[in-house]
Batch of 2 targets.
Target 1
Amino acid sequence: MSRSPIYVARPHLPDLADVIPLLEEIWDNRILSNNGPVLLRFESALSDYLGVEHISLVANATLGTVLAMQQAGVTSGEVITTPFSFVATSNAITLAGATPVFADLDPVTLNLDPTKIEALITPQTKALLPVHIFGVPCDIDGLAEVADRHGLKVLYDAAHAFGVHRNGQSILGHGDMSVLSFHATKVFNTFEGGAVISQDRETKLAIDSLANFGLANVERFNAIGTNAKMNEFSAAVGLAQLCGIDEVLSDRARVAQRYTERLSKIRGLSCPCLSGVVGHNHYAFPILIDSTFHISRDELQIRLEEVNVFARKYFSPLISDIEPYKTLSPAGPAGLPVARKIASEVLCLPIYPDLDAASQDRIIERVLEC
Ligand code: T4K
């Protein structure tokens, strides 16, 4: 009997009953985009849920990051960032007009290590662009200290960090701006979408304007912007999705807990992101497979695929090993030793709210029998 495939991610959908009244409203009033009424309600509800005041909804996180950089004046020079992320992080830096410079990682959080940044700062450095990878908070205080000392902006790629807290407060309140992704594969999705979180109203309005071609009003431009607006359909999905989000987060925590209980004491296998992290959203469940595990990480991925379980090597190769970034310093083979080791060991196991216990056990048994 062939068993149904289990993918690394499976989008959560809101109840249709919560979406349909919103769609009826859209169909009735025929406002489909451009700051419509559903979007405004979603923005306000999201702001309450996340505990942050200034949110600009956008079409996706990639464009949101480009706009954040543009608004922060980071359109040339160098931006210090992590090589261990989705390529969108460095693409956004490049699209904004700057050049990524890769710094090495903290082996515990898998995020940028603030102590590795200072040596890379030059007169061309304009900003830091750290990523809260897999929803695990960066060393926010360490990064702020380095940035303050050198007068650098801090723009967080918070694509994975929906609803993440530190000391009871949203991590989105740190840095100059943070950018969330609401892509289908994320903890919270609007099919495609994202949000830029600013620390003041003036910046929020500037981002809104940049996402709307840079228009100030029908006759005047503030700046050359692009079209990065979220449409009313995505906003309706988001608004409905907020109704069940606490359950989604607790279901993800349950799945992560089961993996941790069964896998964390296996020789050669570690579960890096869970040690001591409170307020986590369990966006992903990465495991690290070192040379003392009886098969390699790549073999384990293949053995899982044989039983229709599709784990993914997020994020391998490192961005710094991909064209056109691999010619940038310090991306050479001698640089970034921690990132290189993590990329060679990482495998993300399937995690989503409705991953049932039997399917999860099928994954765990396969890992254990390898
Ligand atoms: N910064 C970071 C750190 C990011 O990870 C990302 C995006 C961004 C910035 C940029 O955010 P956005 O501009 O997208 O808002 C996915 C996503 O396309 C991408 O958004 C995401 N990160 C990246 C990590 O993953 P793929 O190529 O891995 O997705 P795909 O199509 O292979 O899907 C993975 C699995 O999910 C599939 O095996 C099946 C399942 N799936 C996927 C989709 C899209 C579904 O079941 N239904 C679906 O609709 O890129």
Target 2
Amino acid sequence: MTHDLVIHGGTLVTASGTFTADIGIKDGRIATLGSDLDGKDRIDATGKLVMPGGIESHCHIAQESSTGMMTADDYRTGSVSAAFGGNTTIIPFAAQLKGQPIQDVIQVYDERASVSVLDFSYHLIVTDTSVDGFQDQMQAAFDRGVTSFKVFLTYDIALTDEQFLDVLDAARRAGALTMVHAENNALINWMRRRMGDGGYVDPKYHAPSRPVASEVEAIHRAVQLSSFVDAPLLIVHVSTPEGMAEIAKARLAGAPIYAETCPQYLFLKAEDLDRPDGTKFICSPPLRDKATQDALWRGLQTGVFDLYSSDHAPYRNDETGKLSKGGSDFRAVANGMPGIELRAPLLFSEGVVKGRITLPQFVQYTSANAARLFGLSGRKGTLAIGADADLAIWDPTAEWTVSHDQMHDNMDYSPFEGRQMTGGPETIIQRGNILVQNGELHATPGDGQFLRREKFDRTNAAGIKPAEMDPARNFGAEIT
Ligand code: URP
Ligand code: ZN
Ligand code: ZN
């Protein structure tokens, strides 16, 4: 067979191992893995690593925050920045405004995403379960291929536990995965009030205002509620060893609980909030300490975590962004920081190069596990025959220094400025088309395609109703 493109001589890395082979691409898919393949075009990958393109499955792009602030990145800048960071797929959020019908939410984001250079989908953020026909609307979003829903237990968009149960139940019926931002809202509000009363409002007070206990309590509650209705649950941006322990315990008990952590919790610390530019480091959950970083690495090493995502939430550190509502008073600063372009390079440099994780683990955390959890198995996150030819060719030895000037997002800073890095993505290929090569973008806004995702693949849960939900045992009445 004459292929459209052959990637020759590279070391291929998948979630299960590494091997040397050529990749033959035809009609946008991987057609052959072998040696001495024929192709109309050829890329020499000798000395390079050839991996599945990254899947960034937690990023906020062209999305209003909980207080209504629009992110600095739209789908063009966000996806271009993601591509330069080794990604070929993004799954940002489509956020429901209070009272907004869910079909309208999807329509709004279809419009916003029309300039994406990368393939994309959305997780639906649910903030209002009281809209007419809520359960049917959730089913309609699911049928459209949006097979993951997200809820918040904090901020002004927090759901009550009862509303959270409604979402979990709708997701379980449809076959969707629910994601949760787990922090105890009452504890945070109580701390913010006390700190405000005492005049403790500098950025450094953001961390103690959202203490470890607030994450642990909310994770514990979320695990109990989701287990009660037998619904799979992904706890996003876990930032504490104690929260991680709740998750490990639930998994050992057989609950379908999944977990994610993020670069900021591995590479930054609460003391960064005490810098003169401390507002750059305000995100939630907040940054913690060195002992936490060590524990989170162990979570990645031992598989407590399934995902490692940027939580890219780009608000500029100026009057158009973080400082627009109340200066540096931490209670008014938009939460979140950018990181979509550095997510994978940081994990490679600090994880693979420093021997903390293996190359297959790197692929698990940057693409393969996201494909498995978010209904893209066989299509994305793998180098299998028949999969989309989404590839990232990495130079494992490149030495460079993080400088925001070199980055492609629409931000005015990087929280990782000045870091020394080893290894980085060089050539990015999406469905057989070269997107990035020699530092140049070869894509047009709109090249990305919407991905209809499959339902959540529930391979490790029995699918039976737990005892408390069994009407024969408890009520003698049918509960659906
Ligand atoms: O501080 C953060 N993480 N902001 C983004 C929104 C969220 O909470 O995920
Ligand atoms: Zn969150
Ligand atoms: Zn987020």
